[in-house]
Amino acid sequence: MKKLTILLSVSSLAIAVPAWAEDTAVASQGEGSEGSAVQSGPAKQRTFTTGVAKGRDMLDTAISASTFDQEDIQKISATSVVEIVGNLPGIRAESSGSDGFSAISIRGLPLAADGSKFLQIQEDGLPVLEFGDIHFASVDQFIRPDLSVAQIQSIRGGSASTFASNSPGGVVNFISRTGEQEGGIAELSVGLGYERYRLDFDYGGRLSDSMRFNVGGFYRQGEGPRDTGFDAFKGGQFKANVTKELPGGGYVRLYAKYLDDREPAYGLYPVGISGTNSSPRFENLPGLDIRSDALINKNTSATPGLDQNNQPVTQDLRNGLRAKIKSVGFETRFDVAKWTITDRFRFAGISGEYNELISFVTAPAGVVGLILGAPGGSFGYASGPNAGQMIADPSAINGNGLLSYGLHINAKLNSLDNLTNDLRASRVWNVGGGKFTTTAGLYFSQQKMNMYWDFLTYVQDLAGGGNSALVDVYTAGGAPVTQGGITSYALGAAPTYHRRYDTKYRILAPYGSVNFHIGKIALGASLRYDTGRVRGQLFSVDLGEGRVGSAAIDMNGDGVIVPIETDVTILPLGEPGPVHYNYHYLSYSVSANYRVADQFSVFGRYSRGARAGADRLLFPPSQDAATGRLTDPSTAFGYVKQAEVGAKYRTDHLSVFVTGFWASTSDKNYQIAADETGQTVVIPINRSYSAKGIELEAEARTGPFSLSLGATYTKAKIGRDEADPAIEGNRPRHQPDLFFYARPQFETERFTVGTSINGTTSSFAQDSNLLKQPGYVIFSPFVQIRPNGRMQIALNAFNVFDKMAFVQVGGACELLTRYGARADSRARSCRQAACPDRLFISGWMRVPKFSTPSMKSSKVSNTPPVLGTSAISSSIFATVS
Hints:
The chain is mainly β. It is built from seven helices and 51 strands. The strands form twelve sheets. It has a 24-stranded antiparallel β-sheet that branches. A five-stranded mixed β-sheet has the order 6-13-14-9-10. Strand 39 and strand 40 (680-702) form a beta hairpin. The radius of gyration is 27 Å and the shape is globular. The model is unreliable at 1-44, 674-678 and 812-881 (pLDDT under 50).
């Protein structure tokens, strides 16, 4: 029975009052045609409304787009944004295992860092955050799909560049229910083999002949699939909207949302690796289980730190990824003199927190002592039930003799408040026997970023079952090297990257489009002109100019300053630096669509959009510390150019959409890694990329059988690289040639049985193209039983064949080569693409016991070995599914 408790993910009960009919249309709140019907299945004419001027039948629109209904979400057992969008063609999603710190990209555009730099995530037609890759605040942390979501629409490329800011790659829009269907649904989800309980609900209906409402949300609580010893999952959300219908098909809608939820950032976890770069083999280390263990637990959840006023506090790692949102907004649509006016407005008060433990080096205890300057030293427990006791035999601790030397990240997201308004007007003119549609709009956005970063380094042991503890290190003479397991109140040995910033990003973007549809031909063009204004203040020793970045502080409050407390990283609060720069750019898109027949159309499009940089441009060297202006104004934004041609075929029983694409962009960014000595380094990125490929989306139905599938084949490469010309022509990291999904199912009135299949071919762990990430195929079957028209019982099993699927892996071999390790035998073996046998690695292990749909995959990063020591070979960060 152990295998069942590991593999079976969720048992759910749904009660509808009354039940929604399966073929009933859901309300569309997408771009341009609010309130219109959007229907499912290849037999229906799907009206797509996101990222376009006017909602149209897909066969009359020159875009590559997809829709995903609530029914689809239930079948793939997805409860997070990244899991859902990973089942859409063209979108590559790396789950962090939680709602947050994931990486999402599209059509081969680079995954240079976390977040979704080129893809915008929207809720009801407005961005959740203006920028999708804010440090420690990726956009998926602040949106929670639940039963209140009616449909998800995605557009890849196309007019996304001109109908939304900072979305040159595409847009994914989560559309809420608005009470068009009377009744509701409640769902109780329970993890099998682990503790997590979740209640979802949604209810809507009419208040009068011209008013309707909808309310929905969820609450969850429990330890989760990994052993932490506390409720790592806790919180929920509540959403509500009221719609007043106006004569002529218009409406006014008010809505509100409250979200307060936390999830763990499970971070890196050590595994073993052997084999070669081209064929690595991964396994659990003795006494540890990558599926159920975590670095964070009840013994490691409290650490000392400083607040943003340089005062000692205790950091509570149990807050994990915390998201708090209070938002209100309205939408309206009405007609004036044959013009259709649409306006959307939302203010969201957003705050939260980010906590994670990241292992830099996983090695035998003696090696960690050597790294910390205590050769031949001793060790003692600093937390947990054995706190204060010395470790008699460090080489045998927990049966593996290993310690982890790593980093604790705490980021306070004081304010990410977002105010957005999108006003547009459209009119259809009868011209020369055809329809000429004109649209003009004005977009305004203000994104606030008030954040504080605090880092410290630590040592802990590696014990299974949630029993890891912090460890103190002593020299051979008994002098303490650590304090409560802490080695340094900084990021490594330097006071850098200890930061506070308070900035505002204002965007004003007029835009417009024209479309002429006559007979079988539709021609379109659109423009958007973005102007950005960035102002604010920065605090950090990184600004230079003699700022003091450390001080002696009694961190544990015992009245004694020990050596580790003499060099605590602080903020130079009296010496702020300014942020003061502007930017502007023009986006455009042109297209043609030809309806060859009622069932078949072809299209072509060329677009140029851009993505403005956000907080990743703050601080030197990107920014002048004295003036607040960018040292290179061209870094303020980066263009994305795209061309696409496609064909769409649809009948009552079959639909096939195929799109060929080409995309190019440049990226100026940063990656955190480690050098050959194990020290943390920040790698500047300044390079160009290009990608070409084919997307396929298809659906077939015959009787009770149906098959949905999607696949993306991509050939991507790194163009010019200013910092490292040696990697020019390489494939970007984490970019497989092929990734795909399929969902075969058999459905009757009383039950549905099927499986979700997700897979990818191999990719490279890093841009150096040495270590391979193996491909994988995951099968996740589902069963839904409907005893009557008001109840459904569902069972979902994620990864039923227990496949170890790494979605992000990095290796020391690569870093040794990339950062100039000395030419010893180990470095030479790396250049020959052969990793040493039996490496120790540690990685972002964000996969559960393969038992919860919200934890599909995990991550792995890299840290190189300490050269000159034979006891350790490597340390890696990794992600598994």
